[in-house]
Design a protein that fits this description.
GO molecular function, one term: ATP binding
Helix content: 25-40%
Number of domains: 2
CATH architecture of the largest domain: 3-Layer(aba) Sandwich
Protein name: ABC transporter ATP-binding protein YtrB
Number of strands: 13
CATH superfamily of the largest domain: P-loop containing nucleotide triphosphate hydrolases
Pfam family, one: ABC_tran
CATH class of the largest domain: Alpha Beta
Structural class: alpha/beta
CATH topology of the largest domain: Rossmann fold
Organism: Metalysinibacillus saudimassiliensis
Number of helices: 10
Strand content: 25-35%
Largest sheet: 6 strands, mixed
Keywords: ATP-binding, Nucleotide-binding, Transport
Shape: globular
Radius of gyration: 21 Å
Order of helices and strands: EEEHEEHEHHHEHEHEEHEHEEH
Length: 281
């Protein structure tokens, strides 16, 4: 079953268009959504949540139209945006009371367990929280309702590496507890996705450029690094894009179109994103 399905989703803005987006997030999968700032990641997430209305296309969540029975659908969704949206005078305890009235599946003991794990104060106003503290509280609020779909927009932004690892461990635990759960994880910190993502979707200038499993992504692509003379021998249709370096050329290539005599390196997700963006100017 696909938890999220986008079919030709289009949304027009003044200076940008989210254009004919096709996307399918299967049940039980963590999908990383990558792309540079302004590529359309947050716009797509807001379309999924019906915060932006579509000009064309359709979205289904759990097999149902995303804009019908919306309140019931959102009981099954946890969301973390790139900031915490709570009144400035709220404390962690106030947030608990508010969410307890909002979500029928709210788990108060689990929420305060997360608060303790994430070293969050219970009496301090959120207006005094650092960015990292605000993101940790947003994640605790999203997880404590035990959603079937977790949508994360830059959830580890502003966190130190140790806390980022703790957050990733919580996400893995969240998935391990229930095989029917799914995560859509938008991030520019691609090392986080290297660690936990099952699938990667790359969006560039409002269009989906590819969606594939992480294993296929690494299997299908190689990073060439060598002299210009050696690079010339690589077929043109094998090259996603290239750049000159002080020692020659670096390129992202399709492995199955390159002679096995070439020693190709395994690229990172960041390598793949940057070379695809360079190739789709």
């Amino acid at each position: 079953m696909n938890v999220v399905v986008c079919n030709k989703v289009t949304r027009l803005f003044n200076t940008f268009t989210l254009s004919y987006v096709d996307l399918a997030l299967p049940e039980g999968v963590i999908m990383g959504l990558i792309g540079e700032n302004g590529a359309g990641k947050t716009s797509l997430i807001k379309c999924l949540l019906n915060l932006y209305h579509l000009n064309h296309g359709e979205i289904k969540l759990f097999g149902e139209p995303h804009n019908i029975n919306e309140a019931a659908l959102k009981q099954r969704i946890g969301v973390v945006f790139d900031d915490l949206h709570l009144p400035a005078n709220f404390t962690t305890k106030h947030a608990n009371q508010f969410y307890k009235l909002t979500y029928t599946n709210w788990d108060e003991p689990y929420f305060f367990t997360l608060v303790k794990q994430l070293n969050l104060p219970t009496q301090q106003k959120v207006s005094k929280f650092s960015r990292g503290m605000r993101m940790k509280l947003a994640l605790a609020l999203a997880l404590a309702a035990h959603p079937k779909l977790l949508i994360l927009d830059e959830p580890t932004s502003g966190l130190d590496p140790i806390m980022r690892d703790k957050i990733l461990d919580l996400l893995v635990q969240f998935m391990d507890e229930d095989a029917t759960r799914s995560i859509l994880f938008s991030s520019h910190i691609t090392t986080d996705l290297d660690k936990i993502a099952d699938m990667i979707t790359f969006i560039h200038k409002g269009r989906i450029r590819f969606t594939m499993t992480k294993d296929d992504l690494f299997y299908n692509h190689g990073r060439f690094s060598g002299s210009e003379e050696a690079f010339i021998a690589i077929p043109e249709d094998a090259v996603i894009s290239s750049r000159k370096t002080s020692i020659g050329v670096e390129a992202l290539v399709l492995r199955d179109k390159v002679n096995t005599a070439f020693a190709l390196h395994t690229p990172t997700i960041e390598d793949i994103m940057l070379f695809y963006a360079r190739g789709h100017k």
